[in-house]
Amino acid sequence: MTVSTRTNGLSHAVMDTDYPLNSIDWLTRLIAFDTVSRHSNLALIEDVQRYCEQLGLTVDLTFNDAKDKANLFVTVAAGGNANNSANNNNNTNSSADIINHGLVLSGHTDVVPVDGQEWTSEPFTATIRGDKLYGRGACDMKGFIACALTLLPKAVKLSNAGQLRRPLHLALSFDEEVGCLGAPLILADLKARGIIPDYCIVGEPTNMTMVVAHKGIAVYRCRVHGKSAHSSLTATGVNAISYASRLIGYVDSLAEELSHRDDNDALFDVPYSTLSVGTIQGGTATNIVPNLCEFTFDYRNLPHMTQDDILAPIQAKVAELSAQMQARAADTGIELMQEESVPAMTDDESSELQALIAALTGDSKRHKVAYATEGGQFTNSGIPTIICGPGSIEQAHKADEYVELIEIEHCDSFLQRLLESCTTDK
Ligand SMILES: [Zn+2]
Fold first, then answer.
1. How far is the CA of 300 from the centre of ligand 1 (A)?
2. Separation of 310 CA from ligand 1 center, angstroms?
3. Distance 325 CA to ligand 1 centre (A)
4. What integer pLDDT is reported at residue 82 of this predicted model?
5. Ion ligand 1 residue ranges (Cβ < 5 Å)
6. Residues 255 and 362 reside in one and the same domain
7. Total domain count, the chain
8. Does residue 85 have a pLDDT over 90?
């Protein structure tokens, strides 16, 4: 169950309320919150909530089931009222209009763990050495969030002056790094509130270049149930590892076929959909016919391929092999389970947004990438989305993660121009 609240409901201790005035100080503040995905992100969310409330904005929170993690969504309304007053129950059509449409800046608040990594400086203390700022989340992706938070007072000022032509939204999610679990709650909440943003920019690190599409990811677990026997009596057993290996052989042959399709997309670094077996366990001793074998594989589909395109032939093979096994012994067979699914991000509807970004950055080059983001969930909800943010994906998830200070500067000026594009006097 997801609970949405628009009150000042959180009770965690927070940092001081003298909020930073620039992006580097904001990034330093954000890095100090240990928001590794397995931990709560509420302290960070409450800090941002206070900041928004100081600016006169009302945030919208959506929680996970355990209520120890939250997404935050906040809107700077178009027109002369920065507060998103349409959240009030007595909202009118005109007040609804000032928060509908507009542009979403989106970022995830969680970061990957630092366990087992050798860091030069403390990972949750931002440290500037030379022209770089080091810390967990520096590029993935608290840098973008820092820039967006720094922009917020400027947007509020424009809104209060009646100059914001369309609303500006900020969406901060939880649990992106563990399967993009938070963003769907934001999207469901927006849908329930009748808010349909025109565009979204996800600020994952792209060195401020424009990523217009990414692959989807589906992870499957396959459990092969055979029948044990002494290895000298093979005819009385059903070898789970042997059947698993047949299925793996089939998955590999499908992967080979995918690489030769004529509808592959050369803009991707790996221009075809991929299938890869990642883990396998099975068997207890060489002299026992194994009764269990489990393996996992992932499928990374190009945006025009669906996850079912690959699932259907594998399911057919599973049925064929299960029938063969059951002909030899009842209670044998193969289970196939989906463990994770993140949709691909398409560039089908985003040409207007691409043109805007190209005009603002002076760089019209379009990139497509193999990693997945929340962008696929936004495009799946009908919101044209691109990815553009400071820092390099090369530094993400590593020890001594950093963002170059110049990248933060570039992001600041990009967002400033983006905000100007939302004003009446463009
Ligand atoms: Zn990320």
1. 17
2. 26
3. 43
4. 58
5. 140-141, 204
6. no
7. 2
8. no
Q: Tell me which of 309, 341, 373 is where a domain ends.
A: 341
On whether residue 426 sits in a domain, the answer given is no
Ligand 1 centroid–CA 88 distance in Å is: 33
Is 110 catalytic? The answer is yes
Is 422's pLDDT higher than 60?
yes
pTM summary value? 0.86
Give 79 Cα–ligand 1 centroid separation in angstroms: 33
Which whole number is the average pLDDT over 341-349? 91
CA of 37 to the centre of ligand 1 (A): 11
Residues 336 and 352 in one domain: no
Q: Answer yes or no: do 264 and 183 share one domain.
A: no
The residue among 292, 316, 341 that closes a domain is: 341
Same domain, 357 and 337: no
- Centre of ligand 1 to C-alpha 38, Å, is 15
Mean pLDDT across 215-243: 96
353 and 288 in a common domain: no
d(C-alpha 390, C-alpha 343), whole Å: 23
- Residue 202 domain-assigned (yes or no): yes
Q: Which of 46, 47, 140, 176 is catalytic?
A: 176
Examine the domain organization and report whether 175 and 313 are in the same domain: no
Query: Does residue 150 share a domain with residue 264?
Result: no
Q: Which range of residues forms the domain containing residue 301? A: 216-341
pLDDT exceeds 70 at position 97: no
CATH of the domain at 283: 3.30.70.360
149: tokens are: 């938070």
Q: Which of 110, 175, 374, 412 is catalytic?
A: 110
Q: Render pLDDT for 159-199 as a digit per residue (tens, 0 to 9).
A: 999 999 899 999 999 999 999 999 999 999 999 999 999 99
Mean pLDDT of 128-153: 98
93 with 156, same domain: the answer is: yes
Could you confirm whether 176 is annotated as catalytic? yes
